[in-house]
Each structure stands twice: as C-alpha cells, then as structure tokens.
Specification:
This protein has 3 domains: about 260 residues, Glutamine Phosphoribosylpyrophosphate, subunit 1, domain 1; about 170 residues, Glucose-6-phosphate isomerase like protein, domain 1 (Rossmann fold, 3-Layer(aba) Sandwich); about 160 residues, Glucose-6-phosphate isomerase like protein, domain 1 (Rossmann fold, 3-Layer(aba) Sandwich). About 35% of the residues lie in helices and about 25% in strands. It is built from 19 helices and 25 strands. The strands form 4 sheets. An 8-stranded antiparallel sheet has the order 3-2-4-1-10-9-11-15, with helices on one face. The protein starts with a strand and ends in an 18-residue tail after the last helix. The protein binds 5-amino-5-deoxy-1-O-phosphono-D-mannitol.
C-alpha cells in the first residue's frame, strides 16, 4: 500500500544527487504500489522542489528528471491509490498553501473529512481528492499559530485517526525529515553522513543495514547526523512526547538480496532462491520452535490465520498439525477471522502467518485473539514487524527480502516452518528428515521443471481459464498454483478439492479446457485418478504435478511434471515450484510484468 522514503544527507555523502537516490529507493519500493510517483527535495538554502506524476517510475522518470534535484533532505512516494484515482494531482507528495511543506503518506486518514472541513473554514485551499492533503495543511496551520516545523508536525500527527506512515520535509527546516507511524510500517536506517526512513528495509539497503523498526505512535526526525524518536501521547491540552531510546539492530540482508542479480524479474529470481531460502529457514528453526511446539501440545484448539498465499500456508499448517501432531487445527482467512475468533478462549492457540508481518487483517485477528485469552504465535519473514511484535511468541522464516508482489520463496519458507513445527509437536522424526532434504530437491526440481513450465506456458498463455485440483494437502498447493496464475497472468484460475469438482465446476469443462492436477503422495493421489478420468472424458487438457512413482496419475495426463517422492508435508513446498514457474512464464508470454501485477500491492495495510 504505497512505498515511502525520507532521506537527510550531508552534501556529497551519497555520491549522487538526492533526487537520484530517492528514485533508486522508490524503484526498490515499487512493489508496494506503482500507479503514481513523486518526490520533494529541500536544498541547503531552504528551497523546496516537488515533482510528481501518474505512472510507473520507469515510464515517468524522464519527465520527473530526478537527477536534476540535489539537496539535504527529501521524501519520495510510490502510490497504490486509495482516496482519489491515480492522477498527477493525486500523486504524492502533497503540499500546503504556501508550498513550503511536502508530505508523503501510506495508509488511510479516517478523520480527513472533518479536518478538511475545519481547515477549509480557516482559509486552506485543497487541490487533490486525497486524504493525505490535510496533513501539510494541518502543519501549516500550526506553524501559523507560532509552532516550529517539528512541533507543528507533531501537533498535526496528533490530530490524525487511522493508519499512517508519514514522511515530511519543510523548507523552513532544511536537512530535516520528519516521520510518524501508526499501523502502517516504517523503518529507520542509520547511515554514514545520511539517515533514512522508509516503508521497508530494501529501500535503503545499499547504504546501511543498521535499522530500527518504528512502533505505533512513534514520531521523530532525521538529520544527516542525528535521529530522534519520541512516543507521541496526544492529550487534552496539546501534545506530549517522550524521547525513546533507539533500538538499532543490524540485519543480515545484503544489498544484492534486494537486486535482480541478472534475472529479468524479481519473481523468477525469488523462485530460484527457494533452495537457499528453505535451507536458511530450516537452519533457524531448532532454536525458535521448542517452546512453541511445547505450547501446542497443550492446546485445546488451534486456529491458523493468514491472507492470500499466507492463508494457503496456514491451510497446509493446519493439515500438518492435525495429521502429524493429532491436534484439531483449522485455517481461517484473516479478513474473515472475526466470525471465528468469537469461539476462542484461554487454552486455545492462534498461529498468525504473514510474510510481511504487517497485513492489517492478520494483525487485527491477533489483537482479537489476545483479547479473548488465546496464545498467539506469529510466523513472519520480517523481524520486529507488527504481527510478531504484538504476538506472544514468534518464529521467523529466513527467506530474505521478497520484492516480487507474488509470494514465492516466503510461501515455501512458511510451509517448511509449519511442517517442522507440526513434526516437533508430534515428535515425528521422519518428517524432519524429509524437510532436511528439501534444499537439494528444490534445486533439482527447478532445473528439471523450468524448461517444461516455459513450454507449457506458451500454450497456457492462449487459454482463458483453468482449474486446479488436488486432495488433502495437495488442495492448498492447488489453491496457491491458481492464485499465482491469476495474479500475475490475469487468466481466470480456480482451485477446488478434486472430489468437489463434479458438484458443479465440471460443467465448464470442454475440449481443451486446462485442468492442473496436483498429488503429493499416494494417499491423496490415489483418489485423484478417477477425477483425471472424468476430466479426460470431457476433453480437458490435463496437466499433472505428481510423484514420479504415481504412474496412475501421471500416465493419464497430457503434460507431466514427475516429482521426487517424499513426505507429503515436505512435498507441499516442492511441488508448488512448477506452479510458480508456469504462472511466471505465462505472465511473461502474455506480455505482463509479473513483479507488478495490476491492482495489487505487496503488503495490504488497510482493511
Ligand atoms: O505479508 P502477508 O504474507 O501477510 O501477505 C498476505 C497476502 O497479501 C499475500 O500473500 C498476497 O496474496 C500475495 N500477492 C500472494 O502472492
């Protein structure tokens, strides 16, 4: 939901004009939104420049001429529209009447309408349809009342309700960037002669890996040499803010991890990174999982919550906990969770799965579960993000930064983590042994399935619709395959439990209709044979991803991905790979950018 960056830099410290550094940072944040882009730079003389436009960075960079603007403080924004359609005027940063304050914002200001009305009554003129525009005008209003730039910024933030991450520059404070966070993510980066604040770490990773994740209602400012963070406590008689000590931590991510490294897209790079992502995640689990597995053994009910791909991982996790550890575990879609959480009580466990750790629906579910006395456990890829921070216990996957909007390596890392957790809770050493083989097997699967997936994608690219069928743990893998295809290639794809297909969906099947079957083992694959037959009888074009020993399924398919046989709980992380590759190449053949699917943003921080 929008990417924001703020930088305060000594002249020359970044060896490039500030505008260029902002453009590069926005490029690394573009996965968060890409319908408009803009930046503001303040030079040492206190002159503020703003450039912004509708469109993706690459398409509008010549028009915006980032490199021509140097200065000592600046902010940038790449937008995923919420209030007001994508347009030049709705693009951020937004400014006040005097044009001396520029603000970029991620989130939603819930009380913007009343603030706007109040400000309009005091003579402020608004030009955009955004909620954000009230912020620079509020700052201006408090400055008119005599407050200095930072005091005015804090007073403005204290008036806001909703979810926000805000960065601002002020021509009256050259070299300063102001920031504030509530709910929407914001991270500080501590550099040499320059300091940073951004929606996500990759934005400033080429300059520093010393970071601090901001918490709700923290505000502050950066200069090139100083970072100040305060906790804001809006009160009846004005704003109180207490200084917070800096929680700086060094993260292991390298700048290369946030670059394409020779691949044409992040999505394919991240598919190829899965063997390392799984190996690194597995290496980190023994130290993290012990207490969580113990807690699970005493759980009355277990609810796993996630959105999108993380819901599919939750689904697999629920099946693993039920079938390996003998627990009653159910998966719930995060945005629907409130309808289920009312049944929670002490003794129950909620596992919240979210690669970003910031998905608002999942975060709200964690808060609700805690209120009801359940033990909450987060599974996330981002250290110190909101969901782990607000949960009782956390497990981190170690997939490295995922930039492609379509989740790939974070999914396999989540699946491995949840299977490992189930194996520890159920004392199943065989599953753990099978998981340990995954990095090598994943490498082999990528090498063997990529040429076939590419060839298959050429044909798939001409189709309009596809079914994905599987049974048991193969069903969530099928769901993930269908989601990948639809989100990056814009083909209609639907997953069903295979046994359900003849209760309606099969009516759509005719000659050449693609049906992608997944089987992870003989247990779920045996019963799939009749479904393959039924589809064959109606002329479906049959694609099968199944263990190479499951000839009954593979032999009945037109296109076969024979896979290494292993435990189904390990296979889930492996057998999804051909699906990811098929989706990626189908998008490419259809001429779409798989890293930036239309209408989507990497992290959904608004309900
Ligand atoms: O950061 P999260 O794992 O909580 O994100 C959840 C979903 O928004 C995410 O998985 C989304 O469905 C992806 N686009 C899937 O590729």
């Amino acid at each position: 939901m929008c990417g924001i960056i703020g930088i305060a830099s000594k002249k020359g410290a970044l060896r490039k004009p500030l505008g260029e550094v902002i453009r590069e940072a926005l490029k690394r944040l573009e996965y968060r939104g890409y319908d408009s882009v803009g930046f503001a730079v303040v030079n040492e003389l206190g002159v503020l420049f703003i450039r912004k436009s509708k469109g993706k960075i690459d398409d509008v960079q010549a028009k915006l001429a980032f490199n021509e603007f140097d200065g000592v403080s600046g902010v940038g924004h790449t937008r995923w529209a919420t209030h007001g359609p994508p347009s030049d005027v709705n693009a951020h940063p937004h400014t006040d009447c005097s044009g001396r304050v520029a603000v970029a914002h991620n989130g939603i200001i819930e009380n913007y309408a009343s603030i706007r009305e109040w400000l309009a009554g005091r003579g402020h003129r608004f030009v955009s349809e955004t909620d954000t525009e009230v912020i620079p005008h509020l700052i201006e209003e408090f400055k008119r009342g005599g407050a200095g730039p930072y005091e005015a910024f804090k007073a403005a933030v204290a008036r806001l309700k909703g979810a926000f991450a805000i960065v601002a520059v002020d021509a009256d404070a050259p070299g300063y960037v102001f920031f504030a966070r509530n709910t929407s993510p914001l991270v500080l980066g501590f550099g040499e002669g320059a300091n940073f604040v951004a929606s996500d770490i990759p934005a400033f990773l080429p300059y520093t890996n010393r970071v601090m994740v901001l918490r709700d209602w923290e505000v502050g400012y950066l200069t090139p040499d100083e970072v100040v963070v305060e906790e804001l406590m809006p009160g009846e008689d004005g704003v109180e803010a207490n200084r917070v000590s800096l929680r700086v931590r060094v993260i292991e991510w390298t700048p290369q991890m946030a670059m394409k490294g020779g691949y044409p897209h992040y999505m394919i790079k991240e598919i190829h990174e899965q063997p390392q992502a799984i190996a690194a995640t597995l290496a980190g689990l023994p130290d993290q999982v012990g207490a969580v597995a113990e807690a699970l053994k005493h759980a009355d009910k277990v609810v796993l919550i996630g959105a999108g791909t993380s819901y599919h991982a939750s689904f697999l996790g629920a099946l693993a906990l039920t079938n390996i550890a003998g627990l009653l575990a159910v998966p719930v879609i995060a945005s629907e969770a409130r309808w289920y959480l009312r049944g929670l009580r002490e003794g129950d466990v909620v596992i919240a799965v979210s690669q970003s750790g910031e998905t608002i629906d999942t975060l709200l579910a964690v808060r609700e579960a805690r209120k009801r006395g359940a033990l909450t456990i987060a599974v996330s890829n981002v250290v110190d993000s909101a969901i782990p921070r607000e949960s009782d216990m956390s497990i981190y996957t170690r997939a490295g930064p995922e930039i492609g909007v379509a989740a790939t390596k974070t999914f396999t890392a989540q699946v491995v983590t949840l299977a490992y957790l189930a194996a520890r809770a159920g004392n199943d050493a065989r599953v753990i042994e099978a998981l340990k083989e995954l990095p090598d097997l994943a490498e082999a699967v990528i090498v063997e399935s990529e040429p076939l997936a590419r060839a298959l994608a050429k044909v798939m690219a001409e189709k309009q619709s596809a079914f994905y069928l599987g049974r048991g743990p193969a069903y969530p893998v099928a769901m993930e395959g269908a989601l990948k295809l639809k989100e990056v290639s814009y083909l209609h794809a639907e997953a069903y439990p295979a046994g359900e297909s003849k209760h309606g969906p099969i009516a759509l099947v005719e000659e050449g209709f693609p049906v992608v079957f997944t089987a992870l083992s003989r247990e779920d694959g045996g019963a799939l044979v009749s479904n393959v037959e039924e589809m064959a009888a109606r002329g479906a074009w049959r694609i099968a991803v199944a263990p190479r020993t499951l000839e009954e399924v593979l032999g009945r398919a037109d296109v076969r991905f024979p896979m290494p046989p292993t435990s189904p709980w390990a296979a889930a992380a492996l057998y999804v790979i051909p699906h990811q590759l098929l989706a990626y190449y189908t998008a490419v053949f259809r001429g779409y950018d798989p890293d930036k699917p239309r209408n989507l943003a990497k992290t959904v921080t608004v309900v």
